[in-house]
Amino acid sequence: MSELLTIENIDVCYGNIKALSGVSMHVDQGDIVCLIGANGAGKSTLLKSIVGLEGLTNGQICFDGEVICQAKKVKHTTDQIAKMGISLVPEGRRVFADMTVEENLDMGAFMVRDQNVIAKKKEEMFDFFPILGARRKQKTRSLSGGEQQMMAIARALMSSPRMILLDEPGLGLAPLIIQDIFNKIALINKQDKVTIFLVEQNARMALKASNKGYVMENGKIVLADKASNLLTNEKVKAAYLGE
């Protein structure tokens, strides 16, 4: 498979604090790749750097062979990166609480000019997430956490991305709801051919869902392997799987 996302030796600093140090990794087209690590390891910072929300102090990031982020240079703005086919589902969902479900989906299609395309895509989302169809006119604040997470994913899909970055999609949700979310992620990958880069604290769930996994500690990648191998890795089991 061809590399869709390539991260080459990047550093990200907050003042004198180095949040990411020498991070190199890649995501192949069509794969589900996960990044696991403890709180504060730098996982969310990495996702933000991919979409241009955090500047690089070293290295570069390429998408489909084109440099999109480079140290000390603004190669592409966040909206330009989104237009290239990358959508971010941020940690904590970041929904527009006083808007309806339907209005939130419209926000996800802000780059799409054809109203017929938007209407068709919304109906696809309501078919894929039936609970959202049933609640389309409700204010988002009235939804459960799981419903809000589904809506955040649906909003990201409204622009028909080639890759989705998912930041802690299972955060704060009950185990059965998390399983439902991960089932939907697998379908998005398989049916819609969307490449998935997943950051998740539930290491076991993330690794079981993925083709490949990376482990981050203190802003550095310390392990990279097939996800199935990481599930049986003694260090991973001890540190992240509770074994």
From TrEMBL:
SMART domains: AAA. Transmembrane segments: none annotated. It comes from Bullifex porci. GO terms for biological process: L-amino acid transport. This is ABC transporter ATP-binding protein. One of its GO terms (molecular function) is ATP binding. Keywords: Amino-acid transport, ATP-binding, Nucleotide-binding, Transport. SUPFAM superfamilies: P-loop containing nucleoside triphosphate hydrolases. CDD domains: ABC_TM1139_LivF_branched (cd03224). Residues 5-243 form the ABC transporter domain. InterPro entries: AAA+_ATPase, ABC_transporter-like_ATP-bd, ABC_transporter-like_CS, BCAA_Transport_ATP-bd_LivF, P-loop_NTPase. Belongs to the ABC transporter superfamily.
